[in-house]
UniProtKB/TrEMBL annotation:
The lineage of its organism: Bacteria, Bacillati, Actinomycetota, Actinomycetes, Micrococcales. GO terms for biological process: methylation. This is SAM-dependent methyltransferase. It comes from Rothia dentocariosa. It comes from the Bacteria. The keyword Iron-sulfur does not apply. InterPro entries: Methyltransf_11, SAM-dependent_MTases_sf.
Length: 108
């Protein structure tokens, strides 16, 4: 589980979450666990799908027809809000085709 990883606190300099953040039922729990695991100067990198214009329709379809595990597609504003609200600072943000890429640091 991404919510209880069996490593000591501050054990990693880098954590990469690629195309999986939208599968987490509780992104807040994942972000808290990543914060626990990262060293003080560590980075969290999140690469997440980015679907322009059709996000609402896509999310509706996910909720109606998807099996367990597909939760939600996030727009950049939503991810920024989630990161900021959970104590993370965005140090880099890029968009490439259907990928949104974020580098995050703990915001003390």
């Amino acid at each position: 589980s991404a919510q209880k990883i069996p490593f000591e606190d501050a054990n990693f300099d880098l954590i990469i979450c690629s195309a999986s953040f939208h599968h987490f039922p509780s992104p807040e729990a994942f972000l808290a666990e990543a914060k626990r695991l990262l060293a003080p100067e560590g980075k969290l990198v999140i690469a997440e799908i980015h679907i322009l214009f059709i996000t609402k329709a896509y999310n509706w379809r996910l909720n109606k027809f998807s099996t367990e595990g597909d939760v939600k597609v996030y727009q950049p504003k939503e991810l920024t809000r989630i990161f900021n609200h959970n104590g993370w600072k965005i140090t880099d943000k890029k968009f490439f085709l259907q990928i949104q890429y974020y580098e995050l640091e703990k915001n003390y």
